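$ fold --in a.seq
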Amino acid sequence: MPSTSAIAYVFVALLAMGGAASAHAANAADTAASEPKTLKERLGDKASDDQRVDNCKVPVAERGSKARPDDCMHRRSAAN
């Protein structure tokens, strides 16, 4: 039968390995969170944009309470 000190040593070793693994996982999560986002991730969805001019191509359920025109007739200026 193993001695009490041997069992305690194994227990402490397992705790140390578990702590190192969780610290490594936390470090990996921090690295992933600090990576720059892509343009698509930064822009998000069109419906959440408070500066949009109209409701063109925005689903009815996501349009919000602010009144905006519903048409998609964008006029081109003479400069284009």
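$ fold --in b.seq
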Amino acid sequence: MARPSLPNRVMMWTLFAPHRSVIPLFLLLSTVSAHKDWTNSAYPDLRGPTFHQCASRMPDNKPLFICDPDRIFNATQLIRINNELAKVAIGTPCPCQRRSQCSSGYSLNGNTFHGFIVSIALVDNLQMNFHSPSEQQLIDRAESFCKALEGRWALGDCGNSVIVFVWRHYKKMVIWPARLAERYITQSERKAILARVNDLVQNDKWSEAISQVIAEMFEELRGDPESRVDTGTLSLVIAVGVASLLTSLITGCVCAFRCCGNLSPSEEKSLSALMDSSSNFLVGCAAGSLKAKIQIRPSRRTRPPLHSTCAIRALRTRPTSARGDPRRLPHRQLISVLWPSLTQPSFD
């Protein structure tokens, strides 16, 4: 009997043993479907019911800090990097105001408290609406994905979490710190760290790049936070200062208006005239003194300047006060005494 050809044998094996053909077909489809374009909501939750998709092998006696549904790392690399992330968690101080916010609920080498939670999210590709995205569009998409993961995973209770995102298809890496962690890893420090591992990223050495990023962030998270100016408090201080200045100006204007407005029109007119006559009196006295010095031999006897004697003559002819001393007249009576004599025309 002739032996059937290879295509016939494959067909006969498929027809008579269908249960055997389903298994390799399922493995092939599962391998192909594992590398899909992830969305923000479909990506596995590191602390949710879909955490088993993050790793093919779970670490022993340690929580999972890395999610690799596309199996970019092998099992050995994943366990090693997860141990490094656990070291960061127990090796950094608690930055929260209450120590209870740093209680992990699980034990890491006998320690139930943690500091900063650094997690890794790896994807082969993300779902996008652009066929040829620009560099800025890639950055915006990666940051929106990290922001969604920060809200879904919620690994830190006081903003003490950091997500390191790896996008293998476009060879991108993003360090996404939460609100409090950003004070320890500033934007300039993140750019410097990513610049130092850029060669490893471009050569697809993701395991070495991630290990170096974790080591450098570990040193930054154990240091002191960057001092910042509280913009809310600063705005409040500026607003109070401006309000106080305006209040002082308005109060001064009101007081000046009320004080100047209390004078009657006749008093304002008399005061203005007195100031003008005083200036004329000083000018006349200065002119008379200068004329007396220049005139050595006068041809005839000259009378003293009117303005130098008018006040004395007026005071001599004016009735005195009750005490008999004209110098003790009130200032309003003094004005009435001086005013007629100051306004008389002068003569040579």
